[in-house]
Amino acid sequence: MNRIDQLLENYRSHIQMPLRPGLPASQRVWFAVYPAEDERRIINRIDEFEMVTKEAGHPWVRIDLKGSLARWLASVDEEERAEWFKNPGTIDLYAKTEWKDVLTEFFQKEVAGATAPERTVFALTGLMDLYDFLHVSDLIESLEKTFTGYLLVFFPGEKEGNTYRFLDARTDWNYLAVPILSEK
Asked: What is the pTM of this model?
């Protein structure tokens, strides 16, 4: 069985278990962890994860961050953006605050449109756009306050113990999300 099939099978086993509403947000976050080189294959098969979720009786809302960095930069005043590019470190500073707030607001709007948010699986894809500008841990911490259902984070990277490495390159960070792995 290839890694994506294994991840899908592991997710199927997980989503079929009875979900416990009322858990703290950190316990309602699931990380689907897979090697970064499988990102396009995962995205091409995302509909299968949606079908498995719906077969288990849960609504599904996909929230894709792909292209969000470009959209955010395009929304910034042209003169201000030009100043940022003169000193690229400035972009990092604004990304860690303003862009994170924009992403959180975008996520909140998607959650607000869910018909049964407490039972909904919110699938977060497109994390590669965050690389080099915003830590996944900072975004997840910001999102934890915004949803009542379950957050399925498609995480290109690796996990060892409770430590996650984004794209196998970022500094490790410890998080207590439920891991769903692409291995047995």
From this structure: 0.90
